[in-house]
């Protein structure tokens, strides 16, 4: 099944993820294909470029695609407009839809880590822009994986991947059928689960975010679901000093993750 990748940064990141000389999944050796499948690489089969756009950024994308042996096809802008809904910036790639990881992949990841786990759990984020931004921030913060429930959550859509700017290929997105069961699994690994909510007196800056950690972020307005909240070991809040009652989930995620980064860096 094919998926569209659009926008200069997203396409460039996907191209960089390819091995040199990779034409497509069908052109890979078995070893390369297995590795690509394991890493969930969104292998690009063709790159469409606006024939009327000629500038350094587009030329760099074209050169990179040719270096990776990806077919480049020059088309009218209206064809790109039909391929995707969004600002494609004159470049659209068509590639294999990446697989989203599951509970078994999470178990394997936790067993393989050589450092304390650092996980982000998004309980019901449905806006693709928010998920893309969270992926990008998670990559920058060194998060090992993002966990989301299968129901009532957005997956790796083209918009998510555009906003993520390549972080969708570096941070595993793990979809789980039963989030409460997954939280219990994390506790078996001695991972401390901390949820964020405005309904607590404990500030983010009063909490200990070092060691094995999973940070849980809820949706705007509704926050975490009841069972998710009940499975948290601790609840914290971001201090709000103005008149606004809540923050966008991607902004709140960035604030919380980087407080964890600050604390964890001081313990190394």
* Individual helix count: 10
Order the strands across the largest sheet as they lie in space: 7-6-5-9-8-10
Question: Architecture of the largest domain, CATH level 2?
Answer: 3-Layer(aba) Sandwich
Percent range of helical residues: 25-40%
Q: What is the CATH superfamily label of the largest domain?
A: SPOUT methyltransferase, trefoil knot domain
Shape: elongated
Unreliable segments of 5+ consecutive residues: 21-42
| CATH topology (level 3) name of the largest domain | Alpha/beta knot
| N to C succession of SSEs | EHHEHEHEHEHEHEHEEHEH
- Using the coordinates above, name the CATH class of the largest domain: Alpha Beta
Oligomer category = single chain
**Residue fraction in strands:** 15-25%
Question: Main traits of this protein?
Answer:
268 residues, alpha/beta, 60s Ribosomal Protein L30, Chain: A, Alpha/beta knot, 2 domains, six-stranded parallel sheet, four-stranded mixed sheet, 10 helices, 10 strands, 19% strand
Commentary on this structure:
The structure is a single chain. The protein has 268 residues and is of the alpha/beta class. The protein folds into two domains: 2-96, Ribosomal protein L30/S12 (60s Ribosomal Protein L30, Chain: A, 2-Layer Sandwich); 103-266, SPOUT methyltransferase, trefoil knot domain (Alpha/beta knot). Helix content is 38%, strand content 19%. The protein contains ten helices and ten strands. The chain has helices at residues 8-17, 30-39, 56-67, 77-83, 103-112, 128-141, 158-164, 179-188, 226-230, 249-266; strands at residues 2-6, 44-50, 71-75, 91-96, 118-123, 145-149, 173-176, 192-196, 213-218, 234-236. The protein has a six-stranded parallel β-sheet, sandwiched between helices. Strands 1-4-2-3 form a four-stranded mixed β-sheet. Helix 1 packs parallel to helix 3 and helix 6 (128-141) runs parallel beside helix 10 (249-266). The model is unreliable at 21-42 (pLDDT under 50).
């Amino acid at each position: 099944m094919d998926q569209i990748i659009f926008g200069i940064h997203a396409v460039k990141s996907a191209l960089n993820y390819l091995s040199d000389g990779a034409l497509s999944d069908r052109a890979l050796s078995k070893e390369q294909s297995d590795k690509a499948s394991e890493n969930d690489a969104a292998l690009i089969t063709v790159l469409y470029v606006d024939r009327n756009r000629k500038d350094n950024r587009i030329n760099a994308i074209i050169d990179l695609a040719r270096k990776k042996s990806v077919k480049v096809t020059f088309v009218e802008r209206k064809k790109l407009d039909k391929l995707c809904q969004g600002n494609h910036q004159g470049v659209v790639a068509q590639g294999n839809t990446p697989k989203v990881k599951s509970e078994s992949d999470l178990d394997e990841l936790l067993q393989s880590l050589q450092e304390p786990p650092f996980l982000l759990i998004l309980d019901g984020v449905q806006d693709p822009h928010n998920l893309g931004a969270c992926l990008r921030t998670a990559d920058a913060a060194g998060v090992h994986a993002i966990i989301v429930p299968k129901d009532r959550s957005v997956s790796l859509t083209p918009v998510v991947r555009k906003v993520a700017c390549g972080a969708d290929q570096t941070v595993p997105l793990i979809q789980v059928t039963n989030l409460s069961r997954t939280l219990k699994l994390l506790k078996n690994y001695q991972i401390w689960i901390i949820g964020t909510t405005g309904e607590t007196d404990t500030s983010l800056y009063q909490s200990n975010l070092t060691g094995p950690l999973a940070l849980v972020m809820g949706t705007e307005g509704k926050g975490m679901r009841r069972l998710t909240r009940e499975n948290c070991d601790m609840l914290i809040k971001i201090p709000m000093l103005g008149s606004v009652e809540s923050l966008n989930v991607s902004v709140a995620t960035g604030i919380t993750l980087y407080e964890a980064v600050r604390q964890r860096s001081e313990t190394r």
